[in-house]
Amino acid sequence: MIGPNITHAVIPVAGFGTRMLPLSKSVPKELLPLGNRPAIHYVVEEAIAAGIKHIVLVGHAQKSAIENYFDTNAELDSQLRAKGKDTLADSLNWLPEGVTVSMIRQGKPLGLGHAVLAARPIIGDNDFAVLLPDVVLDPFTGDMTTDNLAFMIDAFNQDKHSQILVDKVADEDVHKYGIAKLSDSSEINNEAGGNDGNASFKVAGFVEKPNLADAPSRLAVVGRYVFSNQIFDYLSKTKASVGGEIQLTDAIDALISEYGVNVTTMRGKSYDAGDMRSYMQAFIYFAQQQLVDDE
Fold first, then answer.
1. Is the predicted pLDDT of residue 190 greater than 70, yes or no?
2. Could you check whether the bond before residue 22 is cis, i.e. omega within 30 degrees of 0?
């Protein structure tokens, strides 16, 4: 394993969570629980396990509750300790020493690409990871210190090719995702991914939500990225397209043509915590796992 030299991560949290209404009307969707913790808790834990030290949340004025979750509530802390509940107080201040969480506002709702670009003043010249909080990877199987994001960072360190996590989806779900077009048709054998381990290989591009007949593979983008800092230059030049938004995929296409980009096949299972059906399934699974751990 090559030691991580990527210590910054961006987590876009500015979305209104319309797929989760009415739950998300007053509570940010990222704070909806999976078991006994909010969904974003697991995403941040994943980043920390991969060696991330500075996490940048990109949000808006109505998402301050997320920033508060990672801050210390001095009044609550003192009350708990006065009642002898030191263990509980300690569990609420769980960020490891040396890990910082910052928040910056997106300003305008101009899409995922614009949200990532909004983090540039904090990220500076550093290479960085992006974790979409709607996607929560199963933390109860595998090893977050070596799987997926950690693997992607190591792969990036080796050849400086940006990495995008993908997973094989069922035929009936292909139309829901961005699908990878592989540079080498022989890499189709790597579509298995899953629990067999991670693999990284070149990608020629992505097709957004294709029909099954037009899909170049069954490898769908999962929501984890490791980017060269050069992605900022492409994002700053990217014009708004679909829905008047700056699309991250447009900047990725430019990065592919200039420097090359790899996909990493995912190990384990992911849950879409921004979709009601998948969220309910995830809640039950996470709660069951935590009940087993408590026995």
1. no
2. yes
Q: Encode the chain in three state secondary structure.
A: CCCCCCCEEEEECCCCCHHHCCCCCCCCHHHCEECCEEHHHHHHHHHHHCCCCEEEEEECHHHHHHHHHCCCCHHHHHHHHHCCCHHHHHHHCCCCCCCEEEEEECCCCCCHHHHHHHCHHHHCCCCEEEECCCEEECCCCCCCCCCCHHHHHHHHHHHCCEEEEEEECCHHHHHHCEEEEECCHHHHHHHCCHHHCCCEEEEEEEEECCCHHHCCCCEEEEEEEEECCCHHHHHHHCCCCHHHCCCHHHHHHHHHHHHCEEEEECCCCEEECCCHHHHHHHHHHHHHHHHHHHC
Percent of the chain with pLDDT over 90: 69
Residues 6+ apart with CB under 8 A from 242: none
Question: Using CA atoms, how far apart are residues 24 and 31, in angstroms rounded to an integer?
Answer: 9
At 195 the pLDDT is 52
Position 41, amino acid: H
Please tell me the distance from the alpha carbon of residue 264 to that of residue 129, in angstroms, as a whole number: 13
Based on C-alpha coordinates, what's the Rg of the chain?
19
Is 8-294 a domain of CATH 3.20.20.70?
A: no
Kindly report, residue by residue over 271-293, the tens digit of the pLDDT.
999 889 999 999 999 999 988 76
Give the pLDDT score at 291.
Answer: 85
Domains of the chain, residue spans: 8-294
